[in-house]
Amino acid sequence: MRRKTAFLGALALTGGLVAFAPSGAHAVTGVITYHTRPENRPHEILDPGDDHCYGVGDGYGEVDNDTPTDLVLYTGRDCTGRVVTVVRARSWLNAKFGSLQLSANGPREPVTSADEDRRDDQDRRDDQDRRDDQDRRDDQDRRDDQDRRDDQDRRDDQDRRDDQDRRDDQDRRDDQARSDAPDRSDSPARSDDTDASGNPDSSGSSDSSDPSDSLDHSDHPESPLDPDNSADNSEGRERPASSASPVDPVNAGSPGRPGRPARSGGAG
Fold first, then answer.
1. Collapsed DSSP state (helix, strand, coil) of residue 63
2. Which among 49, 120, 233, 266 has most CB atoms closer than 10 A?
3. Alpha-carbon distance 71 to 61, whole Å?
4. For the chain, where are the E strands, in sequence order?
5. Distance between CA atoms of residues 151 and 164, nearest Å
6. Which residues contact 103 (CB under 8 A, 6 or more apart)?
7. Which uninterrupted H or E stretch holds 194?
């Protein structure tokens, strides 16, 4: 609470000093922090005015100059008297002083005009728009690439399915052709009288010829040509006398072996 009160008191003091400051002064971005006695109270000056004198009374202790400009400490309360020390920009030190003021010769930050601020804002917006546009284009390119890859994958899948369907159709046609082909094992056997070339076998010509051709007509010179009367004629034909066996007149009545005379007196 005391720090907050001291800060508000410093702001009020700063406002009073600014009221008496030259009209051409400009604010410097940054914070000046210092302490006063008694009780080593901290005070802050936010964005101090350029070339403004800040009377602090009994300043004692650490002085932190967080601005881009050097800070001059004086022994008097109205930035008069002897210069105690100079606190460089973005540095700090301990000192006893009565007032402080930004150096007129110290480094300054460039002061931008309203037009420059607007241009900077516009440039930042333009940069952001360009980045957003580039991001959108990159996203669109990635989506397009992904879509192309997906389309290619679908085409490849379709091609594979088509190839598989064609193979399956060919396999079914082959199976159908094999099932429709006649089984050679069920075909009727070829006649033995026909050789591989389709010609009748010469060895079987006697089977197909007339059986009467195999008879020897030399033994039956008187056989008629008519086959219907061949059986009757063969039965009515007498055996030739020359074919009968000769009878031995001596042994014709004996049951003994032929050629041997029978013994006389055998009956008695």
1. strand
2. 49
3. 15
4. 31-36, 41-46, 53-66, 71-74, 83-87, 91-102
5. 20
6. 69, 70, 71, 72, 86
7. none
Q: Is omega for the bond preceding 107 within 30 degrees of 0, making it cis? A: no
Helix (H, G, I), strand (E, B) or coil at 97: strand
pLDDT number for residue 20: 43
Strand order, beta sheet including 83-87: 41-46, 31-36, 53-66, 91-102, 71-74, 83-87
* Mean of per-residue pLDDT scores for the chain: 74
Q: What percent of the chain has pLDDT over 90?
A: 45
Distance between alpha carbon 28 and the CA centroid of its chain, in Å? 62
For residue 44, the cross-strand partners are 33
Cα separation, 56 vs 52, whole angstroms: 13
CA distance to 102, 115, 125, per residue, from 128 (Å): 37, 20, 5
Q: Which amino acid is at 186?
A: D
Question: To which residue do tokens 């020359």 refer?
Answer: 242
pLDDT tens by residue, 180-201: 877 665 555 555 555 545 555 5
pLDDT at 23 over 50: no
pTM summary value: 0.37
